[in-house]
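Example (one chain per record):
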Amino acid sequence: MTARLQRRLRRAAICSALQAAIVLAAFAGVPYDAALVALVLVSLPLLWALGPFQADVSLNTALDEDDRRRWRIALASVPGAMALYWHRHLRD
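Predicted structure:
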């Protein structure tokens, strides 16, 4: 994996962690309008990061097919999943 791709995935993981924090804050009582704007701004970079994360899941030899299937679903639908995947499988 190139250094440029590693930096890109690290930035996406940070945005994903922020996304999860904003979702939790919205449930905790932060004004809905502010949380929605912040969620959209943080989620936009994740659209371009989904492909590289999905590619890494496909090529990860530490995962079996069931794990790959679970990670693909989680990356596409769970806030913070990119940060968790980065922490478990990509972190230096």
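Caption: The CA atoms of residues 15 and 42 lie 6 Å apart.
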